[in-house]
Write a structure and sequence with these properties.
The complex is a heterodimer of chains A (242) and B (189). Chain A folds into two domains: 72 residues, Roll (Ubiquitin-like (UB roll)); 132 residues, Alpha-Beta Plaits. Chain A is built from five helices and ten strands; from the N terminus they run ββαβββααββαβββα. Chain B is an alpha/beta fold. Chain B has one domain: NADH:ubiquinone oxidoreductase-like, 20kDa subunit (Rossmann fold), CATH 3.40.50. Helices cover 30% and strands 19% of the residues of chain B. Chain B is built from six helices and seven strands. In chain B, α2 runs parallel beside α6. The longest helix of chain B has 13 residues. Chain B starts with 6 loop residues before the first strand and ends in a 15-residue tail after the last helix. Classes of the chains: A alpha+beta (242), B alpha/beta (189). Chains A and B meet through α3 of A and α4 of B.
């Protein structure tokens, strides 16, 4: 890709819609540009792709791949909004709800929360088949301007990448393995790190849920007037198509 | 639907705040249309404490936090053809379920009761006891969503659900037209 960066486009299809992509683009990057929304939680604009939440799973050439990390290929037929994939995504989101303590009525992120908005988009309204794990997780309010309620963390790692790559700090990192893998702070608690409320990792857009809380701004915008109260998640991307 | 026999509806509030029943009243003047289609059996709205006959639709607010809630919920399942969980408490435990996972506690129920009746700073409890009258229903170890106790047919989300989603869902169910919620009506708060 270096030197002669010749932008020779090629096409592939998502659910039969022809999409133009350029060498090196992922399926999701090309889809975003074309105005086709692929649901995602761990991926965020401006951060490096991780491919861990698997909500963006699509079928490409009959195989399940993460659209945020899989490079687009010429002539590929990608399935995105099929009943099978929608159900799988709904189950994934539901399991994220069950793995933590996601009590929307008491959460200050309600209405701005991407996990909740994804549940709305995927029609997560049927009686659950899964048990609630109800873990006892810590609340870290040590920092004067920031609080962490890890009950709501979905381990997407967006704060980790934002802190490392954008802020150049490394306030957050993964600890543990398997189901015990969690996002932790680089110190006894958040007050012992060099985190600042002005960090990109702490900004409202990076944490998709209500885990990273900026103190004293929680209900500045009332419930009912928030980002996803009046528009489905992904509608900004889908509007590009019109 | 001119000569359809009226459907029978029953409602109950378990571990809830009665907000969802208040939300039923948010249907406002459309209640008059709805009452053309239904009779209300056992319900706090009619103050009937027992089923007088089998019902078509049972509406449950709140999850199960004590044994009485479980009895009522079983009674509803036995006596209703279709059971609806109304609101987040019935669906996933809601606010009462906050006692299920209290930070750093191995015995969250004990910690919750101690804080509420004994150790809390602003408590005026002269007996220094947790209420234990035999007439009180026994608390469950955790607060359970309705779907973990009985089979639930439909869940109407919200805290509280809007009058619109309740009216829309009920009127569609009663006329056999329910095919899921409008996306912009789904809210968990």
């Amino acid at each position: 890709m270096s030197g002669t960066k010749k932008e020779t486009g090629f096409t592939f299809t998502i659910d039969g819609v022809e999409i133009t992509a350029y060498a090196g683009q992922t399926i999701m990057e090309a889809a975003d540009e074309a105005g086709v929304y692929i649901p995602r939680l761990c991926d965020h604009e401006g951060l490096r792709h991780q491919g861990s939440c698997r909500v963006c799973t699509v079928k490409a050439g009959g195989r399940s791949v993460a659209a945020c990390t899989q490079p687009a290929a010429p002539g590929q037929a990608v399935e995105n909004e099929t009943p099978h994939l929608t159900k799988m995504r709904r189950d994934l989101v539901e399991m994220l709800f069950h793995e933590g303590n996601h009590l929307c009525p008491i959460c200050e992120a309600s209405g701005n929360c991407e996990l909740q908005a994804m549940a709305y988009r995927l029609d997560m309204t049927e009686a659950t088949k899964f048990p609630y794990l109800e873990p006892c997780r810590a609340l870290d309010a040590s920092h004067p301007d920031i609080a962490l309620d890890t009950n709501r963390c979905i381990s997407c790692g967006r704060c980790i990448r934002a802190s490392q790559d954008v802020d150049g700090k490394g306030v957050f990192g993964y600890v543990g393995r398997g189901i015990h893998r969690r996002v932790a702070v680089n110190g006894e608690n958040l007050a012992d790190t060099d985190a600042q409320v002005s960090d990109h990792a702490i900004s409202a857009e990076v944490c998709p849920v209500g885990c990273i809380i900026r103190k004293r701004v929680g209900f500045a915008v009332p419930i009912g007037e928030r980002e996803f109260d009046h528009g489905l998640i992904g509608h900004d991307i889908e509007e590009k198509r019109k | 639907m001119s000569e359809l026999p009226k459907a029978r509806i029953a409602t109950a509030s378990l571990a809830g705040c009665f907000g969802c029943h208040m939300a039923i009243l948010d249907i406002d003047e459309r209640l008059i249309d709805l009452m053309q289609l239904v009779d209300v059996d056992r319900s706090p709205l009619t103050d009937k404490k027992r089923f007088t006959q089998r019902c078509d639709i049972g509406i449950i607010e709140g999850g199960c936090c004590n044994e009485e809630n479980v009895h009522v919920l079983h009674d509803f399942r036995r006596n209703c053809d279709v059971l609806i969980a109304l609101g987040q408490c019935a669906i996933m435990g809601g606010l009462p379920a906050m006692r299920n996972a209290i930070m750093h506690s191995d015995a969250p129920l004990r910690e919750c009761l101690d804080e509420a009746y004994i150790t809390g700073k602003y408590i005026r409890n002269t007996t220094h006891n947790v209420p234990n009258d035999p007439a009180l229903p026994l608390l469950l170890d955790e607060v359970y969503p309705c779907s973990q106790v009985v089979e639930i047919d439909y869940q109407i989300p919200g805290c509280a659900p809007s009058g619109d989603i309740i009216f829309d869902t009920l009127s569609k169910l009663l006329t056999g037209k329910f095919r899921g919620f409008e996306r912009d009506m789904i809210k968990f708060d």
